[in-house]
Each structure stands twice: as structure tokens, then as C-alpha cells.
Amino acid sequence: MAQLATQPLILAGEGWADYGLVDSGQGRKLERYGAYRFIRPEPQAMWSPRLATWDAHGEFVPGSDEDGGGRWQFDKPVPRDGWPLAWNEVAFTAQCTPFRHLAFFPDMAPVWDWMRGMLAGRSDASTLNLFGYTGVGTLALSAHGPVTHVDASKKSVAQARENAALAGLESRPVRWMIDDAAKFTAREVRREKRYDGIILDPPKFGRGPTGETWRLEEDLPGLLADCRRLLDADSRFLFLTVYAVRMSSLALAGLMDELFANLPGTIEHGDLAVRDDAAARLLPTAIFARWSNPE
Fold it and tell me: 193 vs 64, 116, 213, CA distance in Å?
């Protein structure tokens, strides 16, 4: 049976040529995205900044309520339609979105590395990316075999396909699906499909393409149970990340421990974090739980 590791881990990402955490503090963070720098809210940065001044092209100013809202304010010109960045062989477009992020999640870089390590040497691994967004993780996984990319947003899937073309990876075996993640996964169970790996990055709240409502605390257990049914003793991993919720990673691991009891492997949990460019601090960004079953 899968063994639960009770001690939490820190999965820390380092900056790379096209991205870095420059500084953080007093509820904000300063990041570099290629040639541009941006300030965004970060409630977990409760310390003081290292740098006396922050020079940025723009800042996202949050709304007055804790559920979101806000707008970008720009001090220097920024391409309205975005600009190209890359992580390893995966090219993609970064852009200032109305949702405060830059059209990809850089703290996922160590997750992409870990998943590729779990599939090292494979070119036939079948993987599933739920809530796949703009497809950087999908394109990273596609080096090891066919990927099914699922997102409810037609715009996000279109951007993911454009990113594949930008990277010259449009011929890789990716199935692009505009669908509700929970409904799609339930159908895959009925079809008796199986996958070598699954990654899911569900939001706190969301809506499917035909108005389906997603609430993390209510709907995650059922979705994760269906994901488990798509894996078997020869599968390699499931990786779950959760952002912006009042929840412990140990709670995620406890749910996974129950559902994965009859599979081999290990269940781990902890924090995702990004190390700043000066290697002075780790900024936590999300919690995660993962099941792994290496060969």
C-alpha cells in the first residue's frame, strides 16, 4: 500500500534566464519576466523587502475585497499582446492578465522537472493535465508521450495551442480538450482509460464551459477519487496543487492516503515555493500533495 510521509516537504523553484523573483516583502513581490519587471500582491510576504526601492514596469493593484478584483497600473510601456519567454525547450507567451498573473505559473517549474524525472527514458507515457491553462506543463510532459490537456476556458486552450506553435512543438501528441475537468474525468473512468501520470491544479472556484460550478472543498474529493480510478500499479505519479485556500497540505495528503491505499508508492505533501535571485528567501506560493511510484 502507498506509504504516507507525514513530514512536509518544500519544493523550491529557482529562477532561470526568463524568470526570477527579485525581491518580496510587505505583502508584495517583485518579479522579472524576460525584459520586464512587475509588482504583484503576495500576502505571505510578511517580512521587509531587501531592496530599498523597486523599479518595475507595472504593478497589479488589488481590489478592496479578498475575493479578487483589481487592475494593472503601468509606469513603462509593456506589450499589450504579450512577449515570448521560454522554460527549457518550451516557449510560451507571457502577458499581463486581468487576474493578476502573467499567463503562466513560474512556481510550477520544479513540478515540471519532477514529473519529467518520473518519466525519464519514456517516450510512450500517457499523461493527463486537468485545469491545464496555457499549456506550459502540457508541453513539458509531451516530451515523454501523449498528453490530454483539459481546461474549461476556450481562450486558455487557444493560447495553449498558440504556445505549442511558438515552441515549434505543435506536432507533439497532445489532445486539446475544452471541457469541465470533473465531467471529463468521470467519462474517462467510464471508458476505462488509464494514465501513467496526472497533474491537476484546480482553482478555489470556477465554472465549466456550460455553466458547471466548481467549489474546491466540495468537489475535490470526488474528482480525486476519479483520478485514482485512472491510475494503476504501473502508473508513475499524480501531482495536486492548491492555491489561495485556508487548508493544510496534510489535509490533501490525508485524502490521497485514503484513496490510494491499495496502490504501491509514496504520498508526500508540503509547500511550493520560489527562491529569490539573491538566494536570501523562499517565498511560499501554494500547497501540494503527490503520489509517486517510481520504477
Answer: 45, 21, 25
Closest CA to 84 of 170, 167, 14: 167
User: 206-249 pLDDT, tens per residue?
Assistant: 887 777 788 888 999 999 999 999 999 999 999 999 987 778 99
What global pTM score does this model have?
0.94
Let me know the angle formed at the C-alpha of 203 by 250 and 60, rounded to the nearest 5 degrees: 110
Kindly report the number of other CB atoms within 10 A of residue 219's CB atom. Answer: 17
Cα–Cα distance between 65 and 257 in angstroms, integer?
35
Does the domain spanning 3-16+104-292 belong to CATH 3.40.50.150?
Answer: yes
Query: In 10 A of CB 128, how many CB atoms?
Result: 30
Question: Which H helix or E strand runs over 207?
Answer: strand 205-207
DSSP element (H, E) containing 286: strand 282-292
